[in-house]
Design a protein that fits this description.
The protein is α+β, with helices and mostly antiparallel strands and 263 residues long. The protein contains 3 helices and 17 strands. The strands form 5 sheets. Strands 4, 5, 7, 8, 9, 11, 13 and 14 form an 8-stranded antiparallel β-sheet that branches. Strands 6-12-10 form a 3-stranded antiparallel β-sheet, with no helix packed on it. A two-stranded antiparallel ribbon has the order 1-15. A hairpin with a 6-residue loop joins strand 7 and strand 8. The longest helix is centred in the N-terminal third of the chain and has 22 residues. The structure holds zinc ion.
C-alpha cells in the first residue's frame, strides 16, 4: 500500500508542479495606447472605417460586438486588411473553429481620463488569415489579419468586440453579456480616439483567460436567425433608421443605421 502511494505521489507531484507553473501569471511590458481607431478602412495612416459600415451593432444580451462589412456588399470585403485599433500585445491568435473561426485578441493598456491605467481586449473574429502570433507587440494601425467568413459560415465580415473583462477570451458563456464586461466598440473608440501615450512600457498580464476548450461557442457567433427581442429591435430600427439596401447581395444582413439588422 505504501509503495503504491509512493508510485502515485511522484507523477502527482509533477502534475501539480506543471499546473502551478502554467497558472503563474506572465507579465509583459507594453507601450500605452495613444488612442483607438477603427479596425478597418485605413486612409493614409489612420483607420477611419472609410468604405465600411456596421451591419449589426452592439447590444447587451444580444450581439456582443459589431459586424463590419465593406460598402460594396456581399463577399467583396473577403481578404480585406484588418488592423489593430491601438498599440498593444497579441494575447490570443488561434483558429478555434466552431462559431468563431480564426480569432485574434489584442490587449491594450491606456491612460483613462481620470489618469488611471486601464486594460482592455479587442477581439477580431471570423478572419481569413492571422498575420500575428501570440506574445507579439503591435502598433496602432498595424495589419494583423484579413476579413474572412469562417469557412463560409457567414457573408464575409469582421466580428469585432471590446472586452473590459480580461477573463473572457472566447469563453463568453461564463460572463454577463452586458456593459459590466463589454464596451460598445464605436462608443469606446469615439471617446478614446486621442489619448496621452508614453515612451515606456506598462505591465500587462498576458494569460488571464479562464476559457476552457469545452466552453468555446459552438453556435454561430453571428446567427442569421433572430431572437424575438432582436426581431422587435430590427422592426423598430426599420421604422427609425435610414435603410441602406444596396449593401448586401445575399441579404443575410440588411443594414439600418440604428445598428439593428435583418436575418
Ligand atoms: Zn458579429
Amino acid at each position: 500500500m505504501r509503495r503504491f502511494s509512493l508510485i502515485l505521489s511522484v507523477p502527482l507531484a509533477v502534475l501539480i508542479f506543471v499546473i502551478m507553473a502554467s497558472a503563474e501569471p506572465r507579465t509583459a511590458f507594453v507601450k500605452l495606447a495613444d488612442g483607438f481607431d477603427y479596425p478597418v478602412g485605413k486612409v493614409g495612416t489612420v483607420c477611419t472605417g472609410e468604405g465600411y459600415y456596421v451591419a449589426r451593432g452592439f447590444r447587451p444580451n444580444g450581439h456582443l460586438g459589431e459586424d463590419w462589412n465593406g460598402n460594396r456588399g456581399g463577399d467583396t470585403d473577403l481578404g480585406d486588411p484588418v488592423y489593430t485599433i491601438a498599440n498593444g500585445a497579441v494575447v490570443f491568435a488561434k483558429d478555434v473553429r466552431a462559431g468563431w473561426g480564426n480569432v485574434i485578441i489584442i490587449r491594450h493598456n491606456y491612460r483613462d481620463s481620470d489618469g488611471t491605467i486601464k486594460t482592455i481586449d479587442s477581439l477580431y473574429g471570423h478572419l481569413q488569415a492571422i498575420l500575428v502570433r501570440e506574445g507579439q507587440t503591435v502598433k496602432r494601425g498595424d495589419q494583423i489579419g484579413k476579413i474572412g467568413n469562417n469557412r463560409g459560415m457567414y457573408d464575409a465580415h469582421l466580428h469585432f468586440e471590446i472586452h473590459k473583462n480580461l477573463g473572457i477570451g472566447v469563453d463568453r458563456a461564463s460572463f454577463a453579456r452586458d456593459y459590466s464586461n463589454y464596451h460598445s466598440p464605436r462608443e469606446f473608440i469615439g471617446s478614446h480616439h486621442a489619448l496621452k501615450g508614453g515612451l515606456g512600457g506598462y505591465p500587462m498580464a498576458m494569460n488571464t483567460f479562464t476559457a476552457r476548450p469545452d466552453r468555446v461557442l459552438y453556435a454561430p457567433v453571428d446567427d442569421a436567425k433572430l431572437s424575438s427581442s432582436e426581431a422587435r429591435a430590427m422592426r423598430a430600427g426599420y421604422s427609425r433608421g435610414k435603410k441602406k439596401s444596396t449593401h448586401t447581395k445575399k441579404k443575410r444582413y440588411t443594414l439600418v443605421e440604428s445598428g439593428a439588422f435583418a436575418g
